[in-house]
Amino acid sequence: MNITESRKIKLVLVIADSDLGGGPKHVLGILKNINKKKYECFLICPNGSLASFAREIKGVTVLINKFGSKFDLISAWAIYDNLHKIQSLGHPFSPMIVHFHGARAGFLGRIFLPKHITTIYTEHSLDKNFHLKNKFNEYIQKKILARQNRKTNLIIAVSSSVKEYLLGAKLSPAERTIVLSNGIELDNFGLNVPARKIKVGNHHPVIGSIGNLNPQKGYEYLVKAMPEVLKAFPLATLEIVGEGLERRKLEKMVVSLKLGHHVSFLGKRININKHLLDFDVFVLPSVSETFGLVLLEAMKAGVPIVATAVGGITDVVEEGKSGLLIEPRNPKQLSKNIITILKNPVLAAKLKRGGLERVKRYDWSEIIKNLEKIYHDLAISGE
Question: Quick check: 3 pLDDT over 80?
Answer without folding.
Answer: no
